[in-house]
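Input record (one chain):
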Amino acid sequence: MNKLYEKYIKKESLPTLFCPGCGNGIIQIAAMEAMEKLDCKDDVACVSGIGCSSWIPCYYKLDVIHTMHGRAIAFAEGLKLSRPDKKIMVFTGDGDCMAIGGNHLLHAAQRNIDLTVVMVNNYIYGMTGGQKSPTTPIGAKTKTSPYGCIDEPMNACKLVMSLGASYVARWTTAHPVQLAKAIAEGLEHKGFSFIEVLSQCPVQAGKNVWGEKEPAKIMEKYKECTYLYKLGSDDPTGAMAEKNSEGLIPIGLFKHDEGAKEYLERVEDRLTECGVR
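The corresponding structure, as predicted from the sequence alone:
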């Protein structure tokens, strides 16, 4: 067995619940590689909600809270407040994070609390039968949009950047090396780190979004429909919009503000000002 699996995976829980060809396994390994690079396994605790991607940390030999639908970030904030020494990594999906959990995402980003959120975006509700999610592309036919989705898809990276998240990146399962590097940077960064991962769901989104059920071909589509955004543009959101008009999706590191004050630091400052510390 792979050495990383021996170290990080509970073998008694295998096989995983992931469908064949799902991108969750790639993301699971990327996160392990990030922890191994930082040698921080004993310092990490994971939180997840409900959905296919929320099962990713449940196979780790780590402290893991598998919580309610949409509440992963809320539980993670509570855990961080009670155990500020821990690196908290959240695994969530586009539905779990941006629909029922959207309110928690907004406030965590605005607070810039020290969490590393890995949002797996497969453009659909995969585990519950293929309903439309907040990121489903216009025109996609799903169980809840049988005539084609008419809602403009939400852009999670733009959203959290506008609110104050201090580390924001987007990669795909076709970029596993870059993804592992981003997760490591997120874990090291002191502040709210948000990493979106475009991932294939061959069972649901394959036929409904991509018109293709072969996982490798969907990953090829991710390479074709993305472009590498260069950090440092004077107008990052404008640059992304320009390319989006061509039907391309930006990937890469969008924001890395090491000077932004983290939430727990502000809490300590206020307690000191009030004479509590």
